[in-house]
Every structure is written in C-alpha cells, then in structure tokens.
Write a structure and sequence with these properties.
The complex is a heterodimer of chains A (863) and B (219).
Chain A lengths: L11 H11 L21 E3 L13 E7 L6 E8 L2 E7 L13 H9 L9 E3 L12 E3 L2 H17 L6 E5 L6 H12 L4 E3 L6 H11 L6 E2 L6 E5 L10 H14 L1 E5 L5 H4 L3 E3 L6 H14 L5 H4 E3 L17 E3 L2 E2 L1 H7 L6 H8 L3 H14 L3 E5 L9 H14 L9 E2 L18 H6 L30 H7 L7 E5 L3 H4 L3 H10 L2 E6 L11 E4 L6 E10 L2 E9 L13 H12 L4 H9 L12 H12 L1 H4 L16 H7 L1 E6 L16 E2 L3 H13 L4 H7 L28 E6 L13 H5 L14 E3 L1 H7 L6 E6 L2 E9 L7 E5 L12 E3 L4 E2 L12 E2 L4 E2 L6 E7 L1
Parallel strand pairs in A: 7-8, 7-18, 10-11, 10-16, 11-12, 15-24, 18-19, 19-20, 25-29, 26-28
Antiparallel strand pairs in A: 2-3, 3-4, 5-6, 5-20, 9-17, 13-14, 21-22, 22-23, 25-34, 26-29, 27-28, 27-34, 30-31, 32-33
Chain B lengths: L20 H16 L10 H11 L4 H17 L1 H13 L10 H5 L8 H13 L1 E3 L10 H18 L2 H29 L3 H20 L5
Classes of the chains: A alpha/beta (863), B mainly alpha (219).
C-alpha cells in the first residue's frame, strides 16, 4: 500500500514547475508550529509506539463475555497490536466447553463499525417524529450530562421525581447501580426492564408447577429424549454453544422431536418435526399428557400410583382422587378430572394440526425414555397471548414423567455467589423516599396486568405497556427518561406506539453503542462502551449443569469517546447533580463503594466502574469473603479472576430440589396451589375473583381450570376472511438480540438460517399457499395485518406450515446504520420490522409481550 | 476528537529558504485540512486567518479554494451549530455518515475500520515515532489523523532537513492517502452539507490531482 506513485521519469524541471504552480509566493508564509518550533499535534504524541505493544506481535487471548444472546458465554478475544481480531470460547469455562456459536464473531464488526455513536450528541430540532430530522450535533460529555442533570433537577424542584424513568434493555449484573440505586436515590420507582418482551412467560410455566422462576438447565449429556417446544437449541434460545457441542452425542443417543410451525435448524436435524398450528401448543401438550396417563406411562417413583396398582385413567372418565397416592407431585387426578380426561390425541389433532397418531407416538416415546427426557419449553410456546398455561402444560410433562430434577432431564441451577449494590436507604431524602413509592409507570399489578413475577402481583414488568402509559399519562405524565441498551421503538410489538410515545416524551437520553430508531427520538445520545470489548462488568448464567460468573473486560482501549453505561454514566450524572445541589447519589457512590483489595474509594467514573465490579464479584476471588470457594472455584485473587475470566460452580447434582420444591405444597404441582394463591391474592387486591382476573387478562378458563395446566385457544388479531394467513416470527442464529443487522457478516451469511436468503429479509410461505395466491419466490409483497404493513421479498419454502407465513426477527431497521437501513434519509429499511405488523398483545399474568403463537393474521399481496 | 492548541504570530518563529517554501505551504495545507476535518468542538478560531494567509500564497486552483474555505470557516465559526450539524451529517452520524472519514471505508471490502488498512496506517505511525495523544481513541485512518501525520512529517523535514521525513511523507501521501481521498472528497461535495466542507473537499481534490498528475510532492 505504501508505495510511491510519482513517476521516476518526470524531470526535475517538470517537478519544479509543477510545484511552483502550487505556491504563488512565499512572502509572509511561515510554518504553522507551536512555540519553540515543535509541531502542532492534536492526535499524536512523539516518542513511543502507536499501539500497546504489550500484546506482542502474536497478540494474546483476553477473557470476556459475549452477550449476543442470553446465554452470556465466557469467551476470549485475541488482541494483536491493540486490536481485537478473533474470538473463541473461554477454555476455563466448564459450561460451554470452551465453545461458542456464530454470534460473538459478529461482535467484532459491531466494535469496529464506523456507524457507531462516537461522541455525545444533542438534538437541535425540538420536533420529534419518524420524519423529523433530529439534527444532532456533537457535544462534550460535560455538556451532555449537565443537560440531563438540569432536567432531573427540575423534577426535584417540582417534587415530581417519580416522573423520571430508567428504561433498561440488555444488562450486566452491574445493572442495579443505574437501574435500582440511581432512580431510588433520585426519587423514582421507575426502573423499567425489557424482561417482559424477552421470555417471562416461560418462567411462568416452571414457577407455577415447581416453584422455579427462572430458565431451566438441561442434562443433554445423559438424556434419551428431547422434546422441543418452539426451541431451536442449536441455533437460538439459551445455551446454544453447549447444545451445538453436544448435539452430535444427543443425536446418537436420544430421540429429538421439534414442535414448531417452522422447520428450524434443530427441526431439520430432528427425528420428528411437528409443525403445530401457531399458538395451539397447549392442545398438543395436554393431549400428550392424556396419552401418557392413559397408556400408564407416568413415572411412579416421582408421581405415585393408584393404590390398587391398576390404571384408572380412562378417557372421558372422572376418577376418585382417593384412589391415587402421590409422591412428589400434587393434584394429578384433579388435573385429569378438570382438564385431561377429554384431551385425546384425536381431539387435539383438529385443534393443533398434528395427526393423532404422531401425537400418540411422540408422547409414548417421550414417556418411555423418561426420566432421562426433556420437555424443553421456549418463548415460542409461551410468549403467546394465552401462553401462561401452555408454558405450564409443556413443563408439566417433565413432572409427569419424572424428569424434573433428574439425570438426563430438566434441572434448576446452582448458586453463583455475588454481591449487589450496598444499601442506599440512608441516601434517600424525603422526596426520594416518598416518590419512590409512587405506582410504577407500566401499570404492573393492575387488574388487567397482574405481572405476577414469582407469584407476586405486580412483581414483574409490563415493558411494552410503558408506551401506552406515556401516551395516556397513566398513571402520570413521564417527563424525563434515560434509556440504555434498548431500542423499544424497534423491538416492541406495536412499535408505532413507541414512536408516538417517544415523540411525546419531553426529554429523553439514549445510551447506546449504535444509533437506532429509539435514538431518533432522543434529546441526548450518549456513546456506550461495547460490552464485550470495552466494558468492565460481570454476569451470572448457567449451561451444562454448571453455574458461572463471567467477566466482561476492557480487552482493548475503547474506540471513540465512550463510557460504560451502567457505572460511568450514573457516576457522571451524580457529579452533575451534585454540582446542582443534590449530592446524595455521588456521596453514595463515593462512600459505599471501595476497592476490596486496597480499600480505596473511587474518585472518578473509571475507578468507580472497576471498583464496583471487583466489589460485586468478591466472593469469586477474595479469600476473605465468606463464600469464597464454597460453591465452586476458589480463585486466587482479582488478577486470577481477570485472567481466567470465569468462575465455575460445582456441577449441579440432581435429586435434592425434588425433595422440596418451592411451591405452596412443596410438591411438583399439577394442581397449582401456588397459582391459586397468587391469582386469589391479585383478585383480592382488586375486589374480584380469580375468574374476574382471567376475564380481564383474556383467558377463557373459569373456575378450577384456572389452577391446572390446560388448553387455551390461540388469541389472534384479524378476521380470517380478510387476513387468511397466520403470521409468526422466529429468531436467527446470527441475531445478537436484534443488533446484528448493520454487520455485513450477518447479511452475507443470512442463509445460515433455514429458508432465508443472503442480503434479504424474506417472508417465507408454503408453495401451496403461494400457488393459491398467485405468488412466487422473489415477488415483492406487501404484508398487512390489522395494525400495519411492511414490504418484503417473498420466498416459497416447504419448511413453513401451510396456512402460515413466517419471517425472521431482526431486520427492517430504518435507522441503524448504512447496512441495516437502505436509505435513512427516506426512512427506507432493509427488509421489514415484524413489530410494525405485530400488535401490542400480552400474556398478562406474567406481563409478557405476546410476540409468538401467531398472534396476528395477515394478508399477503403483490406490493 | 482532541483539542487543538492555538497559535499566535509569535509562534511562527521559523523562516525558511525559498527551497522550502513549497514544503511550508504543504505543511500548512495538511495541518489546516486536518483541523478542518476535525470536530468543530476543537476549533480555536484562528483557523480562518491561517487559511487566508495560506490561500494568499497559493496558485490557482488552490488559491480560490483556500480563500473560499477561509471565508466559510469564519462564517461557520459564527454559527457553530450549523457547522456542527454539517460535520455530524458528513463525518460523525448518527444513523448515516454521508462522507465516512476513514480510509478503511473506501479500501476495505466490508467497510469496517480497524482492519488491514487501519493497522497498516497504525504501523506507519509507529515507525514514524508517533503514538496516540491521551484522550478518546480514533481509528488511525481517520482523515484528520492522516493529514496531521502528513503535516508532521513535512514539518520535521522543514525543521531538520532530514530527507527521510520527506521520503516517508511522500510514501504515505502518494502511496496511501491519494488512493482514497478523491472518493472521500467527492462524497463531501456530493453531500453538499456546508460550504466550508465543500471548499475543504475541493482543496483536497486539487491536492490529490496535484500529487497524481503534477508531481506536487518533491523527491
């Protein structure tokens, strides 16, 4: 590259003449230089290597964590000359075997994306809207944080601090600084997480059967049967690297069955594919339960048996409960009598579209393989408008066959010790204490939004309803918001509401690595450090029966003028609030955080970030911590932890959880006393009955049916006559949570997802439907639902169930960079955002957004 | 972006033989273009006068472009918000950068930075004896950095007389910068965001043309 281009044949005379044509006169022209004659340099200093030479010419591997999905895999990054060039799994990690999936590789293209936010920016056009030009201009961090602090101090002056909201998207476990301590010390109850657009309904299934409000782990190594409910383990959902590395063994020793209206990557490799009608998973699950019972294949050791040893589960017949003695479960016969006795495969076949014979075959195979069997529940089968009970039904199969907390089955988790934010109550003044107790802005806990996280009414979040709260000033008008690591204007269904809500917000700051649709409505945009390369934090997760604590590390010097979102940003804000007379937050950060090794309190934002992560993870590496070495690795100091990057728990041991499930009865509940208690408490709170709650939350069940896993018909928007096709979306093995679309590698490898095309965002339609509609592959089509439309290319594909159409989530950005958007000036996206045609529907008992289950019907026509 | 130190008349202590005058002009051109393509937040206010002075010394077409740049720079500093807005649209974003200021964008297949091109440039800096100044990290192949390097090497040649600096400057500018600056300048002109940037881009085009077709760089 650095070769000369000047022709050696050019004569000195020509050269001189040419050069003279550059300079007219030298009179008065002197060299621009600093005093003393040294060069005027802004970007450089003289006398040392340009890059950190410590890495050496071959570089070194440095540990960090990928947050491209919610597995949060320990990884290592090869850094050469200060540049991240490659990623691998962390060999110290027992959870992912030192393996990774494609996602962390894509992160390299995020880090070095010229479209990243580089400096703080300020909106200069007060008008907000998709078609308004925000007219952002660069400003300093000092000015940016000052502007935010000014707005927040106005709230304090007006005693309206509760009208501040902190919206959280993806997070690390440093989250409680910005999400909890910061709002609460300031005086707001409104830390609003993204969780309810992710997978909360999934937790509903495990909690109201076995008292576990969390994602499960799976003993793949020892399993003999895997029944995936919308799950695509080798591609998406959780534990992808573990599943990828184990799937060969799994395929050798186990039967794999995938229930999914789409031929997913896992379905393509499965023994059986059950292309269920979207949203009717519950019918399939209860029919399988019916078969397992009528065939006498339940697990006697776990469930119990009839006192006479005979099988009295006869289709259609009610059974005397006293005939059955249960062991580790509660309410099996009640479940049969209330729900299962009539749920034959023949009944289910008509409802869910899977032949009765196949239902029976799979149910029998699953039960016979048990207890080394896994019923793997995913968002696809639970994040549905009536998905709470589908989640219960699919997870209850694990109870029925005794695979819950069993070798080769579905298990809970090990303890991963960590500390969180110190008590901040002493730093709350009267305004803070009073206003922090105001109702939260997302209306959680209201009659129609129970959001019963772990049984507590209003304990969860109703993320997507926050847009309506802003639009309706219900329960009050939000005046100031900070959004971090989130893009709700793109990622929430009914995204048009978010565009209107964010347009209405008087003041909003967005902390992000990349400008996005949400940034478009911001008043201030703040450049965030990339979690995998530029940020100090930690995460807790699990795979392969190991829990772990894993660090994200600053493996390279950050690009541009970024700050760490969950630590540095609140510190900088606290400084500005202190300058304006409210120093409680800064005092809290300075006084309650101290480096465990030195005892030093932080004096600036960077020190605060490091201090906090060391303080929170102390149990993993500090020998003076009471939990050090108690639950797993006994790391030898901070440097050891930073070098290895991961702390591994002891391996989970099956068999203890089942001795006392954390349910109301201590048993695995087919008749859920836990849910009955929760629903009754929520009903009492609103002066109604559980039936009243179910009516308000769009469920059809009444009476005792409310307390057992049962079938609920799919709820869909749009009349079939006008919108003949059921639309559902799926995930990509390349999606870094919807943030990949500006990576060229994402586009050039998109056909890694079955049925998809490179550099496209195709709507996949079965050829049978296409023929009827006169459409073919490559057609530009308009996809219209009752709430909106998008235009995309059509792909005919046999891998989608007739009567349905599907499209991957993640594209359709009109503001995410020059690759993701075709033309930002005209707001033309590449592909279409599913959330423009998906309605804001909910699984209200958990507060979840019902993004799956075919919640909307569409019509497809030539664009 | 880093801040720029101001200069005063008293700083300009050097006087040079005529043989070096062209190099002085080039050095000043590199430095002022570097400042021009840097963040408006870092501008000191002395730049228009310096550009005016440089323009007075130059032949056409540099003369007109430099004088236009001096005028637009002065008026731009009177309305910094418009200047900042144009700077953001052209070089910074968000959402869309109309004229990405990175060599990588024009030379790398995936238009990502910190790849082969960035690192070759970084190695060139290191060989030159430079390292990044304290402050936020910018990609090595940002136009303002590359221009500052060209200024530095020219400055060193002028002040030391060591021809190695000239050789390095010519290698870097002639072998690398002119491979992407024309496309960059065209993008700036096409975007039509602000007259200052148009005139700076036109100067850049003139310079590249001079290098490519008129042996502007001396041996």
């Amino acid at each position: 590259m650095m070769t000369r281009t000047a022709s050696p044949q050019q004569s000195t005379l020509e050269s001189a003449m040419s050069r003279r044509r550059f300079l007219q006169t030298s009179a008065g022209l002197s060299l621009l230089a600093a005093a003393g004659g040294s060069p005027l340099l802004s970007f450089f200093a003289q006398g040392a290597p340009f890059q950190d030479a410590a890495a050496g010419p071959l570089g070194k591997w440095i540990s960090s964590t990928c947050q491209g999905c919610t597995t949060w895999c320990p990884v290592q990054i090869r850094v050469v000359d200060g540049r991240a060039i490659a990623v691998r799994g962390n060999p110290h990690s027992k959870a992912n075997h030192g393996q990774i999936c494609p996602r962390p590789h894509l992160a390299l293209q995020q880090l070095y994306d010229p479209d990243r936010i580089k400096v703080p920016m300020k909106r200069t056009n007060p008008k907000k809207g998709r078609n308004e030009d925000p007219k952002f201009v660069p400003i300093t961090w000092d000015e940016a944080m000052g502007l935010i602090a000014d707005k927040m101090m106005e709230l304090r002056a007006d005693d309206e601090t509760h009208k501040f909201v902190l919206f959280r998207g993806r997070y690390s476990y440093m989250r409680d600084i910005i999400y909890s301590a910061m709002p609460k010390i300031f005086g707001s109850p409104n830390g609003i997480s993204h969780s309810a657009i992710c997978a909360e309904a999934e937790k509903f299934g495990a909690y109201y059967t076995e008292g576990f409000w969390d994602y499960r782990d799976y003993d793949l190594e020892n399993t003999h049967y895997i029944l995936c409910w919308g799950a695509d383990p080798v591609s998406s959902n959780r534990q992808v690297p573990h599943a990828m590395s184990m799937w060969g063994k799994v395929s050798d020793q186990a039967t794999v069955v995938v229930v999914d209206p789409r031929l997913s990557a896992s379905a393509a490799k499965a023994d059986e594919w059950l292309p269920v009608i979207p949203g009717e998973d519950g019918a399939l699950a209860v029919a399988m339960a019916h078969v397992i019972l009528t065939e006498g294949l339940w697990n006697r050791d776990f469930v119990g048996d009839f006192t006479d040893g005979a099988n009295h589960f006869t289709p259609g017949e009610v059974i005397d409960e006293t005939l059955f003695t249960e062991n580790r479960t509660n309410g099996l016969v009640k479940w049969w009598n209330i729900e299962l006795k009539d749920r034959s495969p023949e009944w289910a076949a008509d409802v869910c579209g899977i032949p009765a014979e196949q239902i029976r075959r799979v149910a029998i195979g699953f039960a016979k393989a048990a207890p080394r069997a896994i019923s793997w529940l995913s968002p696809g089968a639970s994040m549905q408008a009536r998905g709470g009970y589908a989640a219960m039904a699919t997870h209850a199969l694990n109870g029925l066959v005794g695979s819950s907390d069993h070798v080769g089955g579905v298990v809970q988790k090990t303890k991963v010790p960590a500390d969180t934010v110190p008590d901040y109550s002493e730093y709350q003044d009267d305004i803070s204490k009073h206003n922090s107790k105001q109702p939260k802005m997302d209306r959680r806990g209201s009659l129609e939004f129970p959001a019963m996280n772990a049984g507590k009414s209003g304990g969860g979040v109703v993320t997507n309803n926050a847009a309506d709260s802003i639009l309706n000033d219900d329960p009050y008008d939000i005046r100031v918001a900070i959004v971090y690591w989130a893009n709700f204007a793109f990622s929430c269904s009914g995204s048009d509401r978010w565009e209107r809500a964010l347009s209405k917000l008087p003041f909003m700051a967005h902390v992000t690595t990349h400008a996005s649709e949400t940034s478009h409505f911001a008043d201030i945009v703040l450049p965030a450090a990339h979690h995998m390369f530029e940020k100090w934090s930690f995460l807790k997760s699990k795979q392969n029966l190991y829990g772990y604590s894993t660090l994200t590390e600053r493996v390279v010097e950050p690009m541009w003028d970024v700050r760490q979102d969950e630590t540095e940003v609140p510190w900088l804000l606290a400084e500005k609030l202190a300058e304006r007379g409210f120093d409680n937050m800064l005092r809290y950060f300075k006084e309650q955080f101290a480096d465990p090794e030195t005892g030093q309190h932080p004096s600036n934002s960077a020190e605060f970030a490091m201090t906090a992560v060391k303080q929170f993870t102390r149990a993993c590496w500090d020998q003076t911590h009471p939990d050090h070495g108690k639950y797993g690795d006994a790391l030898n100091g901070w440097q050891d932890f930073a070098k290895k990057g991961v702390w591994n728990s002891h391996r989970f041991k099956c068999g203890k959880v089942r001795e006392a499930f954390k349910t109301s009865t201590g048993k695995f509940e087919f008749y859920s006393e836990t849910l009955k208690t929760a629903l009754t408490a929520h009903a009492d709170k609103h002066g109604t009955t559980p039936d009243g709650v179910l009516e308000a939350t769009n469920y059809t069940a009444r009476g005792e049916l409310a307390f057992v896993p049962h079938y609920e018909p799919a709820l869909r928007w749009g009349a079939e006559a006008e919108y003949p096709l059921i639309f559902f979306e799926h995930r990509s093995r390349l999606n870094r949570e919807g943030r990949s679309a500006n990576c060229p590698w994402y586009q050039t490898h998109k056909n890694a997802d079955p049925g998809d095309e490179n550099w496209a965002d195709v709507l996949k339609m079965n050829p049978v439907d296409a023929k009827r509609l006169g459409l073919t592959s490559g057609d530009r089509v308009k996809v219209t639902s009752p709430i909106g439309s998008i235009e995309v290319d059509l792909k005919l594909w046999e891998g989608v169930r007739p009567g349905t159409v599907t499209k991957c989530y993640g594209q359709g950005h009109w503001a995410y960079g020059r690759v993701a958007a075709l033309d930002y000036q005209k707001r033309v996206p590449r592909g279409g955002n599913n959330n423009q045609i998906l309605p804001a529907e909910y699984e209200r008992l958990s507060g979840s957004t019902a993004r799956h289950g075919g919640v909307v019907r569409v019509k497809v026509e030539h664009a | 972006m880093s801040s720029t130190s101001g200069t005063t008349d008293s700083d300009r202590t050097h006087s040079f033989d005529d043989a070096f005058s062209t190099e002085v002009g080039l050095a000043n051109l590199f430095l002022l273009l570097s400042r021009g393509f840097s963040s408006p937040l870092s501008m000191t206010g002395t730049e228009p006068a310096q550009m005016q002075e440089l323009g007075d010394s130059l032949e056409e077409p540099f003369h007109s472009a430099a004088l236009a740049a001096a005028r637009e720079w002065a008026s731009g500093l009177d309305d910094r918000e418009s200047l900042a807005l144009a700077y953001a649209r052209l070089f910074l974003g968000p959402f869309e950068i109309l004229a990405p200021p990175y060599a990588s964008f024009y030379l790398e297949p995936d238009q990502r930075i910190m790849g082969r091109v960035s690192m070759e440039v970084a190695r060139f800096y290191a060989e030159t004896g430079l390292h990044p100044a304290p402050g936020p990290r910018e990609a090595p192949d940002h136009i303002a950095l590359e221009l500052e390097l060209a200024y530095y090497l020219t400055h060193q040649f002028i002040t030391t007389g060591e021809r190695e600096y000239l050789q390095s400057r010519n290698d870097f500018v002639g072998g690398h910068m002119v491979t992407w600056l024309p496309a960059f300048a065209s993008a700036v002109i096409r975007a039509d965001a602000h007259d200052l940037y148009r005139s700076l881009a036109e100067m850049t085009q003139c310079f590249c043309d001079g290098v490519t077709n008129r042996s502007l760089l001396s041996d």
